[in-house]
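Supplementary Text 2. Reproducibility record for the structural model of the 286-residue chain.

All settings were left at their defaults, and a single model was retained for analysis rather than an ensemble. We include the record here because the model underlies the residue-level annotations in Supplementary Table 4.
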Amino acid sequence: ERYKLVLGCNRVIRPGPDAQHRFVKRLVKHRHIHNTLKTRGTILNDIALVELSEPVACTDYVQPACLPDSRVALSALTDCYISGWGNTNPQNDHYPDILQEGKVDFFPRQNCSKLWNRPLPAMNLCAGLERGGTGTCQGDSGGPIQCREERSERYWVLGVLSWGPLACGATRQPSVFISLQYFRDWIQQQTKEEDLSTPVRLPVFARVSTPARRTPPPTTKPSSPASWLSPPMWARPTALYSWISPGSFPPLQWRSWSPPRPKTTRWYPRTRPHGWSRHTHRPMPC
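Retained model, structure tokens:
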């Protein structure tokens, strides 16, 4: 009851008429979260879920996110972005009113461990720019790293920020995220939604190759696949659910639709000091 969530906006002070406000009904923390940063470790199991006080309506500004399973090859997703309202100038403790965004690259976990001089388990992902200039900062914890599928506008939420360098956007100091691919089964257990065990369409360039198998032809004609397995498009569900964890929406009867043209100024990632891009025009409220 102490926290309010605002969805469907990119501004803090003036969210706009399309923003949706919800309160937290239930908070689920991982039972085995453990901070070992002071002993050259990481923050183990740094993840939590929130259940909202009431359902959220899907609109042009609020859409469900895609959660990857083990079949998604992260190395094949190249257009990856971080976002948040964290500090943009550590020298004067400045926090922006407008959501900031930056394009980053993934670091191999072994290389990331060497750069940080500490072991990093499989639950961690590392991302940033080796040359620096773009990265996370204080106040961005819990923010997403999202990668776009090349042949559609679908984004996969691959992780949430756990910790990073004190010098924001520093050279050869990537930020460390919690892998949602690693914790996908845990999310399924906590939300008790059956849709996560349902086969989903993978990104065209993000499939892990598997050897071909010879199978005998079926004796009966298989049924037609559900409409939500059609080529990747944004979809609007006919019912509403209150979990906001990525991919936790049950497979309902979907009605495909093409994304409308944005009603606000288009954002482009642009490298700026302290690691965040700046908007090119004054954005319209949500």
